[in-house]
Design brief:
rRNA binding, mainly alpha, single chain, 122 residues, 2 strands, Helicase, Ruva Protein, domain 3, two-stranded antiparallel ribbon, 30s ribosomal protein s13, domain 2, 2 domains
């Protein structure tokens, strides 16, 4: 297993898919990394040389914010919204949808109460 940014990437995955195991890297970012480093996108993670893996590590460390740093920044942003008492912060604090979704009939995953309403089984 290749270890990049503190994450073990399975050897049997293609390069593009394997990079998405890192929090903060999606398909488009993975493709951009592959293009920048001129790597073969059909290679599997297990077939990469140590030099290729180290170049991926170096690129990610220098150019991207991933894993712990990204999670910390997102948590701090949410905390800031809650502290300044803005609308989005209020929605975060109360566990409601933040981005304008309706809550009358949906939003069960965010609000809870999934099985408490509706027709009861006999």
């Amino acid at each position: 297993m290749a270890r990049v940014a503190g994450v073990d990437i399975p050897n049997n995955k293609k390069l593009e898919i394997g990079l998405t195991y890192i929090y903060g890297i999606g398909r488009s970012t993975a493709n951009r990394i592959i293009d920048e480093l001129n790597l073969d996108r059909n290679k599997k993670i297990g077939d990469l040389t140590e030099q290729e893996i180290s170049s991926i590590r170096k690129y990610i460390d220098e150019n991207l914010k991933v894993e712990g740093d990204l999670r910390k920044d997102i948590a701090l942003n949410i905390k800031r919204l809650i502290e300044i008492n803005c609308y989005r912060g209020y929605r975060h604090k109360n566990g409601m949808p933040v981005r304008g979704q309706k809550t009358r009939s949906n939003a069960r995953t965010r609000r809870g109460l999934a099985g408490k309403r509706g027709i009861k089984r006999k």
